[in-house]
Amino acid sequence: xxxxxxxxxxxSQPWPCRTxxxxxxxxxxxxxxxxxxxxxxxxxxxxxxxxxxxxxxxxGFIHRYQNWLxxxxxxxxxxxxxxxxxxxxxxxxxxxxxxxxxxxxLKNLIKLMEGVKSGKEMELFLLGMxxxxxxxxxxxxxxxxxxxxxxxxxxxxxFQSLNRQQKEEFWKNHIYQQVKRFL
Length: 183
Known about the structure:
Strands 1-2 form a two-stranded antiparallel sheet. α2 (55-64) crosses α4 (79-88) and α5 (92-99) crosses α9. The termini are far apart. It is an all-alpha fold. A hairpin with a 6-residue loop joins β1 and β2 (23-24). The protein folds into two domains: 1-42, Low-density Lipoprotein Receptor (Irregular), CATH 4.10.400; 51-180, no CATH class. The protein has nine helices and two strands.
């Protein structure tokens, strides 16, 4: 009995372009070279999403810890909406625009991401993280971090070593100014 498949692509090239009858191997997806006629295999949002955790996993996590995460860190929206924005937004600035974060929410999200980046569980407990959330938070949000989510923070090298006043100055002069015009 033949098994029904979702597309007509062979198993050796399972990824379908939007153009009918053009199939690619996974190695050609988001490799920097367009292979589909409409260049869908290099779509920026899809390539960002490829590096991120599954939207369903993020939505489940956000739902479980909604009282902590929404709106303080992620802004307003359903867990599904916020998860989609986290998966598709290339940088924290892009997410802030998409989720319409205010300055405080943006700062809180960056603090959360910095805590995940450094692996400092205690920093996140000080931000109100519930007991039992660390392992899943780290697993999901570290993948978001390593995919370049904080790349637009790089002008502030050694951000963790800045004192509080320097960090506040950085927020005013760099990040929030980039995002502010879109809010």
